[in-house]
Amino acid sequence: MKKIINKPENFVDETMEGIELAYGDKVKLLNGDKRILVTNYPVQKGKVGIVTAGGSGHLPTFLGYVGQGLLDGCAVGNVFASPSSQKMADMIKACDYGSGVLCLYGNYGGDTMNFEMACELAEFDDVQTAQVRVRDDVASSPVENADKRRGVAGMVYAFKVAGAAAEKMMSLEEVVAVTEKALANIKTIGVATSPCIVPEVGKPTFSIDEDKIEIGMGIHGEPGIEVRQMMTADEIAQVAVDTLTKEMPLGEGDEVSVMVNGLGATPLEEQLIVYRKLHMLLADKGVKVYMPHIGEFATSMEMAGLSVTFFKLDAQLKELLASPAKSPFYTNLNK
């Protein structure tokens, strides 16, 4: 294993220390806790709090979206491991500004179990909570079992919509409703060409031949749905469009935001080449692209590959996506 780290067991704590030292004017550790990050931006009293949690190793997800107009707090565990329910509960209580807290997180067993316990703990202290799970990964389960799908890069769009809705002083019920509406229109498919290495494990999470590509690989190295011969960028784009529009048909007059997300080791140039073809294929269908997101938004350490997310917009979702947002890793100043 060749990584630029110190001791593997200190990987998460030292990452958190680095974030606070670099961006302490924007975010802070909650009472010095190296597993809980909260916003340091001014917060409107009475605003709904938006929080998430999950394993480390996915920057900018999840920590990178703590800021203003996005998340108010994030708890993290070890690499690819859920934080404890107590850490989550502490975060939830710190992010209650008087109107309740939305817990918005990926559909993973450990996160679900711990958030359910955390919400019970928070509600003992009279904090109203709601939970919404992200299930945008179309490859992780067939459509008839969509409730079992994993949450991947599409959750960034959910953070953005929920955060914007909260900034507009919507109630907790209203924030939940518009976030669920957004998630019903967010679909993701990923491809991987090489594995990642968890620091404390010290070996690759999976193996794939040099001339192969895996379709539908999960962000923790979960198996995909198909291994193929390595494809060109245009072929990858075609697979993404075919897969996503099979579930979410798009046609003349529709508008989407497209995210091309690098998994950690894919150059931006390659992501842009894929986006180029995606844009062309959508244009051929009469579909307009609004606010494309191209870059690293939800990584898997140094995994090579990318994911493609389509977010189908209506007037309300478009407005919320375009609303101002600020964090150390994501800034949108559109008016």
TrEMBL record:
Molecular functions (GO terms): glycerone kinase activity
One GO CC annotation: cytosol
DhaK domain location: 7-330
InterPro entries attached to this UniProt entry: DhaK_dom, Dihydroxyacetone_Kinase
SUPFAM superfamilies: DAK1/DegV-like
Keyword set, alphabetical order: Kinase, Transferase
Designated name of the protein: Dihydroxyacetone kinase subunit DhaK
Biological source species: Candidatus Anaerotruncus excrementipullorum
Lineage of origin: Bacteria, Bacillati, Bacillota, Clostridia, Eubacteriales
